[in-house]
Design a protein that fits this description.
3-stranded mixed sheet, hydrolase, EC 3.2.1.21, polysaccharide degradation, alpha/beta, about 35% helix, about 475 residues, TIM Barrel, Glyco_hydro_1
C-alpha cells in the first residue's frame, strides 16, 4: 500500500521547537505484561508460550526469561505513583491471558481479574486513562498444544476471553486494543521462528495471519456487547515502512507491502485480502482456511487504528532466495518472515541507528501517518508504540540519555507535522515506560524512559522521561527539558 513507500531523504532534521499539541492529544507510555510483570507462577497464572519459549535453551539471549522481569505485579502501587509523578495522560498495558484463563478456556481465575481491576482503578484514581491490550503475544500454552494460532478454534477462545475482560473492566477502560502486532505473532512466531512458539513453516504463518484477523473481528463484537458505549475499540499494527534498495525495488516493495501490511489492513479495514497477496503465496497455500463469511466477521468498525513505528526497510529483488543463507554464506533452510517473497533482499541502510541496529527515520513516521490517513480517512490513528533502545546507566542518581531525547523529539515533530497536514491523530504512546524483558534479546536492550536496575529493581526516571513529562505539562516540544 502507498502508506509504506517513502523517499529516502532526510533534508531537514525534524528538530523543530515550539510546536504545540492540543490539550486533547493524549501523551503517555506503554508496556506489555510478560515484559514487566514477573510473578510467573503466582495467584493461579497459567503457562504461556513465552514461558515455554524463553525456558528453551538457545531461544533468548543469556537464557533470560520473564520470571521476574520488572516485578510490576508486586510493585503495582509504586509504579502507578511513578506514572502519576510523570504526569502521564494515558497508559497502555496488556492483560496476560494465562492470568485470566490459565488454560486459555474454561474457568476464570479471579485473582488475575482482580490484579487488572486494581490496575485500572489505580490509573483512574490518578487521572490516567487506561488503554488495555488483550493480546501481546502470551498465548496460553494449553492452546498452543492444540495448534495455537494455526487452529481456528483459538480465534473463538480469544473471543470468549475478550468477553470475560469486557464484562470485568468494560465500565472503566478508556480504550481497548484486541491484538498487538499480529505481524510478529504470525511471521516471527510461525515463519522465522525467532519468537514464540518458534515455528518455521510458511503455511503455518499465513494460517495464523487469518486466524488472528478472525480473532480480532470476533473480539470486537464481544467487546461492543460488553463495554460502555463510549469506550474505544482498536487494533495495533506494526507497519513495515519500505524504501527502494536497488534492482527490482518496486516489485520488492509491492511484495513485502502485501504480506507484511495489506495482509492485515485489507481484511480489517476493507473486507478483503489483496489479490496480489493471494497470487504471491499460491505456492504456499490456496487460502482454503478462509471460510465463507469470515471476511464479514473480520471487517468490524473500529474507533482508531493503533500504529507502531520504529524504523524503515530497504528492499530489492534477488536472483535467488535471500532467506536461505547464513551470514557467512553457507546454505541453510531457515524460516521466512515473508512467506511467498523469499527472493526479496533487505538492503543495509545508512545510519544513525539505535541499539537494535534500526535506522532512525522520523520522516518515515510522518509519511506513514499521512498515507494511512489518505487511504483510510474515516479511521482515526493513534501512535501506540514508538521509541528507541540505547545503552543507559545511572550516574549519580541520573540517567542521561540524550540520544533517546533526540529520537523522541524528532518523532514527536513528525507526529505534529502529520497533524498539521490534516491527519486525524489522537495521541502518542512512548515505548516503553520502563526497561524490560525485550523478548529474544532478553535484558540486553533498554527501551524505557524509566531505568530499571535488574538487581535491585529500583526505578530511575531518565532524562527522556523528564522530557516527556515536560511535553505533557507544557504541551510544547522543547529542547532539553532538564
Amino acid at each position: 500500500m502507498a502508506s509504506t513507500r517513502v523517499k529516502a531523504t532526510d533534508v531537514d532534521d525534524y528538530r523543530d521547537t515550539g510546536l504545540e499539541f492540543s490539550s486533547d492529544f493524549l501523551i503517555g507510555a506503554a508496556t506489555a505484561a510478560y515484559q514487566i510483570e514477573g510473578a510467573a507462577h503466582e495467584d493461579g497464572r497459567g503457562v504461556s508460550i513465552w514461558d515455554t519459549f524463553s525456558h528453551t535453551r538457545g531461544k533468548t539471549l543469556n537464557g533470560d526469561t520473564g520470571e521476574i522481569a520488572d516485578d510490576h505485579y508486586h510493585r503495582l502501587e509504586a509504579d502507578l505513583d511513578l506514572m502519576k509523578s510523570m504526569d502521564l495522560e494515558a497508559y497502555r498495558f496488556s492483560i496476560a491471558w494465562p492470568r485470566i484463563q490459565p488454560d486459555g478456556s474454561g474457568p476464570v481465575n479471579a485473582a488475575g481479574v482482580d490484579f487488572y481491576s486494581r490496575l485500572v482503578d489505580g490509573l483512574l484514581a490518578r487521572g490516567i486513562k487506561p488503554i488495555a491490550t488483550l493480546y501481546h503475544w502470551d498465548l496460553p500454552q494449553a492452546l498452543q498444544d492444540k495448534g495455537g494460532w494455526t487452529n481456528r478454534d483459538t480465534a473463538y477462545r480469544f473471543a470468549e476471553y475478550a468477553s470475560i475482560m469486557g464484562d470485568a473492566l468494560g465500565d472503566r477502560v478508556y480504550a481497548w486494543t484486541t491484538l498487538n502486532e499480529p505481524w510478529c505473532t504470525a511471521y516471527l512466531g510461525h515463519g522465522s521462528g525467532v519468537h514464540a512458539p518458534g515455528v518455521t513453516n510458511p503455511l503455518a504463518a499465513l494460517t495464523a495471519v487469518h486466524h488472528l484477523n478472525l480473532a480480532h473481528g470476533l473480539a470486537v463484537t464481544e467487546l461492543r456487547r460488553a463495554v460502555r458505549a463510549d469506550a474505544l475499540v482498536s487494533i495495533t499494527l506494526n507497519f513495515t515502512v519500505l524504501r527502494g534498495g536497488g534492482a527490482g525495488e518496486e516489485e520488492a516493495m509491492r511484495r513485502i507491502d502485501a504480506v507484511a501490511n495489506r495482509a492485515f489492513t485489507g481484511p480489517l479495514l476493507q473486507g478483503a485480502y489483496p489479490q496480489d497477496l493471494l497470487e504471491d503465496t499460491v505456492a504456499v497455500t490456496d487460502w482454503a482456511f478462509v471460510r465463507p463469511g469470515d471476511l464479514d466477521l473480520i471487517h468490524q468498525p473500529i474507533d482508531f487504528l493503533g500504529v507502531n513505528y520504529y524504523t524503515t526497510a530497504a528492499v530489492r529483488m534477488g536472483a535467488e532466495s535471500a532467506m536461505k543463507r547464513n551470514p557467512d554464506g553457507t546454505e541453510v533452510v531457515i524460516g521466512s518472515e515473508y512467506p511467498g517473497s523469499e527472493r526479496v533482499e533487505f538492503v543495509a541502510q545508512s545510519g544513525p541507528f539505535t541499539d537494535m541496529d534500526w535506522n532512525i527515520a522520523p520522516d518515515a513516521l510522518e509519511e506513514l501517518l499521512v498515507d494511512l490517513h489518505t487511504q483510510f480517512p474515516d479511521t482515526p490513528l493513534m501512535i501506540t508504540e514508538n521509541g528507541a533502545a540505547f545503552p543507559d546507566e545511572v550516574v549519580e542518581g541520573r540517567v542521561r540519555d540524550p540520544r533517546r531525547v533526540d529520537y523522541l523529539h524528532r518523532h514527536f515533530v513528525a507526529a505534529h507535522r502529520a497533524l498539521a497536514r490534516g491527519v486525524n491523530l489522537r495521541g502518542y504512546l512512548v515505548w516503553s515506560l520502563m526497561d524490560n524483558f525485550e523478548w529474544s534479546f532478553g535484558y540486553s536492550k533498554r527501551f524505557g524512559i524509566v531505568h530499571v536496575d535488574y538487581d535491585s529493581l529500583e526505578r530511575t526516571v531518565k532524562d527522556s522521561g523528564h522530557w516527556v513529562s515536560d511535553l505533557i505539562r507544557t504541551r510544547q516540544i522543547r529542547t532539553g527539558a532538564r
